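Q: For a teaching handout, I want to show students what a protein-ligand complex looks like in token form. Below are the inputs, and the small molecule is iron/sulfur cluster. Please produce the holo structure.
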Amino acid sequence: MASPDEKWPTASFEEKYTLMMGSMSDEEQRRAAANVIHLCQCSKCPTNTETGEINAVYCTFGKSEAIHEEKGCLCSVCAITKTMSLRWEYYCTQGSAKELSDL
Ligand code: SF4
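A: Here is the structure, written as tokens, with iron/sulfur cluster included.
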């Protein structure tokens, strides 16, 4: 049987989320997201030009209160997308990956 480390590259978002974040409190999840803010593309995104929300990570924190119009999405080229097997986009308007997932 494959160990969690062997399974990680091909695991789904739901499997990775459960392995990594499943037992974390909201505060621990917030801190984990803060640690990957430097990877997040949202501050450079055409959809997020005038909000001032430079530390976005909408895939974890969910919808923006300030974004109402979708003008392109950089999520597909974000390292977090690859690492966590995210399969959606426009988290700023659609909600967090957890909300969009089967979890
Ligand atoms: S979630 Fe996608 S569309 Fe929204 S700001 Fe981030 S990269 Fe842009």
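A: Two things your students might notice: The mean pLDDT is 91. Residues 41-42, 45, 47-48, 56, 58, 73-75, 89-92 surround iron/sulfur cluster (CB under 6 Å).
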